[in-house]
Here is the input.
Amino acid sequence: HRRYLDTFRGREAVTPDGHRILVCANIGAPKDLEAVLGADADGIGLFRSEFLYLGRDNYPPEEDQYQAYRQVLEAMDGRMVVIRTLDIGADKQADYFQLPKEENPAMGLRAIRICLTRPEVFRTQLRALYRASAHGKLGIMFPMITSVSEVKRIKEMCAQVRAELKAEGVPFDEHAELGIMIETPAAAVISDLLAREVDFFSIGTNDLTQYTLAVDRQNAQVEPFCDRHHEALLRLIRTTVENAHKAGIWAGICGELAADTTLTDFFMEVGVDELSMTPGAILETKAKILDR
Ligand code: PEP
Ligand code: MG
Here is the structure.
């Protein structure tokens, strides 16, 4: 089977109706690059930036973040790298954030909500990201979005950071794409409105499943109630991709469902532009798209 999969190495995943699907990698730290480079990834569709914030006793400085992002962009050598801003809270905790104890952390102060509540923390990350954008093809992605007003606030902060860097004479890519994760039912349902505000969508099926089906992703007891192919999820995915395309932006999937090859035909039919997954699953997905 390994030899069969290797025959798809280096090939573009083009569907029978001629649509190129980027098959990208999810990573959690620069140390994962080796696996990505060996896996024939078309890019990085999700770089979870939490590793920079976890396992330490204070906020990571801009310079450390810049170096980590730059390293990944340079290694990918012009291929797209989507870096997701801080998605802490819920299952991922860091003491120095001094987040209040919550009854229901998955629905609590997490991810973009922390960034909007603590603009200085967010600004530091945005500065590091924009500085790194001078070294490759960067997409900046925001998690846990539920409303248009959040996206507008985020875009204002991005514009401020760009203006600051420009005034300081620091190089960055003016065209670095800004995208959002579609991982709440609210975001999927208003994806027509959100699509006017951003350059891309990436569907986070792990959280989208949890919130749509009301099944805690951390609770093994409700696992039997977690139907990952639930029609509600498939409809939300279809709606999101259709609304993206109507607005002329691209849409990918970066949750675990992206690597589910029993759904690859569905993703192709819907017109998904990118699938991002653990590096080890990439060739299997390329084979599924190409071998017919
Ligand atoms: C998701 O929710 O599908 C996702 C990709 O993000 P995470 O698994 O990091 O929450
Ligand atoms: Mg998520």
Remarks:
- The pocket of magnesium ion (ligand 2) is lined by residues 143, 183, 204, 206-207 (CB under 6 Å).
- Residues 148-168 form the longest helix (21 residues).
- The mean pLDDT is 97.
